[in-house]
Design a protein that fits this description.
Length: 74
């Protein structure tokens, strides 16, 4: 039986997103990671809110996924 899944949230500061295409690329890359359940991109201030299952994915993995798309994570 699966235990209770605890949800966590984190915010990534992403540099270089300028348009809807960037937003989609970042959101899609993060949602492809196992454990990530929701992604909210705020283009103007470069903030990306990520909801994920505790212990299923690390901030390092999220950072890697975003950087693979060509954006910098602070
Ligand atoms: Cu763009």
């Amino acid at each position: 039986m699966k235990g209770d899944i605890k949800m966590e949230q984190t915010t990534l500061n992403v540099k270089g997103m300028t348009c809807a295409h960037c937003e989609t690329a970042v959101r899609t890359a993060l949602l492809e990671l196992e454990g990530v359940t929701a992604v909210e991109v705020h283009l103007q201030d470069g903030k990306v809110n990520v909801s994920y299952e505790e212990g299923q994915v690390s901030k390092e993995k999220m950072t890697e996924a975003v950087e693979d798309q060509g954006y910098d994570v602070e």
